[in-house]
Specification:
7-stranded antiparallel sheet, Elongation Factor Tu (Ef-tu), domain 3, 33% strand, alpha+beta, Helix Hairpins, conserved putative lor/sdh protein from methanococcus maripaludis s2 fold, 291 residues, 3 helices
């Protein structure tokens, strides 16, 4: 698609002149070749005719390129911004400002960084050649704007931040991603099925590491050490320490001590009391109680 036209008349005139000279030199070369075949002219005269024909053809090709450049075309498909020049403005090849900025929208790329300690996991999953999924989320991490794939893993780690730069490509069919827009990128390495997931509020931290208050069958609580693999938003993925079906305290842990009794009741919001809530890992919150 042609976006702008620079006055082509001078370039058209130069092209016509170059083509005429090239045609004349071709006729001269043909005549010289016939004379040389009959040994009428010297080899030097024939070589000169050959060189002139090649020279004029190259000049015609250069003139054609200059003429084509007078019709300015975009090398990519995209969306134009506000034009930087108006009709009738004088422009030069060395001008710092362009005519218009064209931004590619389909596909679109997102640059993001991850801590260097995650690099080995990314490379083990194939890196940029592994077809890893990348989700583009809004600022609040609540809405998924688009889903793409990891395209580039930078070849060095930034020593000042301890992060590695990555680039993901998104189809952006719905135009939810816009150049310059802030998004949160989430790189998906693996999908774990039947994993134990608990609210992040369950996870407590002490001198021995992370733990949770587990509600035993006799309705007393104990401090259960747990190993948290990942925390995302208000959920935590537990690798060790809890099993699906076990009940844990999700709120009011500061009131508890190991061995304290709790009474499980249906959650009922009250202005006068703030009950201790419990939850079964990996399932919906179903009970609450008081110590």
């Amino acid at each position: 698609m042609c976006w702008a036209v620079v006055d082509p008349k001078p370039y058209q005139a130069a092209l016509d002149q170059a083509k005429a000279q090239a045609a004349l030199d071709q006729v001269t070369l043909k005549r010289q070749a016939d004379l040389r075949a009959r040994n009428v002219i010297a080899q030097q005269d024939y070589d000169t005719a050959v060189a002139n024909a090649q020279k004029s053809k190259a000049a015609a090709d250069a003139a054609q390129v200059n003429f084509d450049y007078s019709y300015i075309k975009s090398p990519i498909e995209g969306r134009t911004g506000v034009r930087l020049v108006d009709i009738g403005n004088v422009i030069h090849a060395a001008d710092q400002n362009g005519i218009v900025v064209i931004t590619q929208m389909h596909p679109i790329s997102v640059m993001f960084t991850l801590p260097e300690q995650n690099l080995s996991q990314i490379l083990n999953e194939g890196g940029a050649n592994g077809g890893l999924r990348v989700l583009a989320l809004d600022r609040g991490n609540t809405n998924t704007l688009d889903e793409g794939t990891l395209a580039v893993v930078d070849n060095e780690i930034d020593p000042t931040t301890g992060t590695v730069k990555l680039k993901a490509t998104f189809p952006n069919d719905d135009l939810k991603l816009w150049p310059g827009k802030f998004v949160n990128a989430r790189l998906v390495l693996t999908t774990r099925k039947d994993a134990t997931v608990i609210p992040s509020s369950v996870v407590q931290r002490g001198p021995q590491g992370t733990y949770a208050y587990l509600i035993k069958p006799d309705k007393t609580v104990e401090m259960r050490p747990i190993k948290v693999a990942q925390t995302e938003g208000n959920l935590a993925l537990v690798d060790e320490g809890l099993k699906p079906g076990e009940q844990v305290v999700v709120d009011g842990q500061y009131k508890l001590q190991p061995g304290a009794h709790v009474e499980l009741t249906t959650p009922q919001p009250s202005k006068e009391s703030q009950p201790v809530q419990v939850r079964q890992p990996g399932q919906k919150m179903a009970r609450s109680g008081k110590p």
